[in-house]
Specification:
The complex is a heterodimer of chains A (261) and B (284). With 261 residues, chain A is mainly alpha-helical. Chain A has one domain. Chain A has ten helices and no strands. Chain A is elongated, with a radius of gyration of 19 Å. Chain B contains 13 helices and no strands. The chains are: A mainly alpha (261), B mainly alpha (284). Chains A and B meet through helix 2 of A and helix 3 and helix 4 of B.
Chain lengths: 261, 284
């Protein structure tokens, strides 16, 4: 099949994904609610007790500034559950079987989901950043840093989305995706999202230092607040690329199986 | 005589007064609810898991930072962040366990209402209120089990209560009263919900309110508007009372305020639930 057909079919499927978002906005809104409530809770309630140790960790940084990167990452995580559920409902409701019988590029369905998810997530993150700006976020990012942020966040979204596509394909029913969703939602808590890693002890500190979300959050934080990133940037890009490729090939393998299981 | 009117439609055996009927039926309904809890342990587990996860998260992940930022709220006789914070947050986790269990009650009541079993009971010679009483007493038992588990877990992560026997009993009394208040409120929410999903979502504010109380951080660390809210919302006096009873901090007038809140919410919710329950069931 020609590459032209692939792009045309992917565009059609992306349009389908975006139309789902427009017609059922509740799903996107509900995936935004939790990150925003968490942000308001931590920024409003806990910041008084947290700010001293955060100021010691990064002088001149308010607690609102400190947690925004973690909230951005959580927005991606919560959004991915929508993708997993949609892919799963495509598989279980028979539309995928129908599309397989038609003359379209096979993977275009999945590509459409991923591009749709990236657009959806970027809009959600813009909304989250607006809430953060209203709550006193003080960015020190220049144009180049914003470009970098866009890149890192897109890469992260592509990575998490391909993984959630694979999970949606692998699960036999919608509940089957909840394990992955939970993991993506819980892991940010045990990272540098809300407290500096130095305040954790023992095994938790080791875990937080080595889990994939910490370098990603540190990279976003560095770009957003003009702090040194160190080698976190490369580690973050490596983790994201690995997750994206792993999710992509896993999805491909699952998708190319026969529809009957 | 109101009891007799609710009993109309049945033929009570001579000489058996209706009060003992109410008692027997309530016990049967309690057994029904306890059996539900026993047969679907996953609901109880889910309900207990939430406060336990919050306990571990707040003590181990945020505890070091929050503990060193406690300031005036630092419990007496404890130094260092995590240990101090475990002592500080334990009462809030107990309160959350009560709220989480009540959420389960709202779901159970809504299930009863939407599945038609209540409609069935209404046609039978069953004292009406016994269904709700059964739910509440079963919920209280479940909650106390949950509270015990959560308290032991808190002790496991470094909470060191130093209450004497009288203070322990007083603390249990406060928790029980809180349980009845929140449970009756959730029974009302469960009755008023049109679907089980609504019933599982509407008590969410009960899980959120403890976060906005003095339970997780001292109120004087909050920004002005939030501090005002936090000082006047019901979970703050309950928290402070439990904290005082278990760890010996100043209670002041918090005990009286807590009792007033709990009794007020319990009585109003009881009346509300009764009224919702006495309504005629809608067709469909």
């Amino acid at each position: 099949m020609s590459s032209h057909a692939f792009f045309a079919d992917s565009a059609t499927m992306t349009r389908r994904s975006l139309r789902q978002t427009v017609r059922y906005p509740v799903m996107m809104i509900s995936s935004l609610v939790v990150p925003i409530i968490l942000f308001l809770l931590f920024a409003g309630v806990f910041s008084g007790s947290m700010k001293a140790s955060v100021a010691a960790f990064a002088p001149g940084t308010s607690y609102v500034d400190y947690i925004v990167p973690g909230i951005v990452l959580m927005t991606v995580g919560y959004g991915s559950s929508t993708t997993a559920l949609r892919v799963n409902s495509d598989m279980t409701s028979g539309i995928m079987a129908r599309l397989r019988t038609m003359r379209i590029t096979r993977t275009a369905v999945l590509t459409g989901h991923v591009i749709g998810a990236v657009i959806r997530t970027l809009i959600a993150i813009s909304l989250v950043l607006c809430v953060a700006a209203l709550s006193g976020l003080h960015t020190r990012a220049d144009a180049l840093a914003w470009l970098g942020l866009l890149g890192v966040i897109s890469l992260l979204t592509i990575a998490i989305t391909w993984l959630s596509v694979a999970i949606g394909l692998a699960a036999n029913k919608p509940e089957g995706t909840s394990g992955f969703t939970l993991l993506v939602q819980v892991l940010p808590f045990i990272s540098s999202a809300f407290v500096p890693i130095g305040s954790l002890s023992g095994a938790l500190r080791w875990f937080a230092r080595n889990e994939p979300f910490t370098p990603i959050i540190d990279t976003i934080r560095g770009l957003l607040l003009g702090m040194p990133i160190g080698h976190s940037g490369w580690v973050a890009v490596a983790w994201c690329s690995a997750m994206a490729l792993g999710g992509y090939f896993w999805s491909r393998a699952l998708f190319n199986r026969g529809p009957s299981r | 005589m109101t009891a007799m009117t609710t009993m109309s439609g049945m033929t009570p055996a001579d000489g058996v007064d209706t009060r003992s009927h109410a008692w027997i039926h309530a016990r049967i309904m309690l057994r029904r609810n306890l059996r539900h809890l026993q047969r679907y342990p996953s609901l109880t587990l889910m309900v207990m898991l939430m406060p336990l996860v919050f306990l571990l998260l707040f003590v181990y992940v945020f505890g070091g930072t929050l503990g060193s930022g406690l300031g005036s709220g630092t419990p007496v006789g404890v130094h260092g962040g995590r240990q101090a914070y475990a002592a500080y947050v334990a009462p809030a986790i107990i309160v959350m366990a009560v709220a989480a269990a009540a959420q389960g009650t709202a779901i159970a009541v809504a299930q009863d209402m939407t599945e038609g079993i209540i409609a069935r009971f209404r046609t039978m010679a069953v004292v009406r209120s016994s269904v709700l009483t059964g739910h509440v007493v079963a919920a209280a038992i479940q909650t106390m089990v949950g509270v015990t588990v959560v308290t032991l877990a808190a002790i496991g992560v470094g909470f060191r209560p130093h209450a004497n026997v009288a203070e322990w009993f007083a603390a249990i009394g406060v928790v029980l009263l809180l349980t009845f208040a929140i449970t009756w409120l959730c029974v009302g929410l469960g009755l008023s919900a049109k679907s089980v999903e609504t019933a599982s979502n509407s008590p969410m504010f009960l899980m959120l309110l403890p976060f906005l109380s003095s339970g997780f951080v001292p109120t004087d660390s909050l920004p002005t508007g939030m501090r005002w809210f936090s000082e006047y919302e019901p979970f703050t006096p309950v928290n402070e009372t439990l904290r005082g009873l278990l760890t010996g901090t100043e209670i002041g007038d918090n005990l009286v305020i807590s009792l007033a809140w709990c009794i007020g919410v319990a009585v109003l919710s009881y009346a509300w639930s009764r009224r919702l329950y006495e309504r005629e069931p809608k067709a469909g």
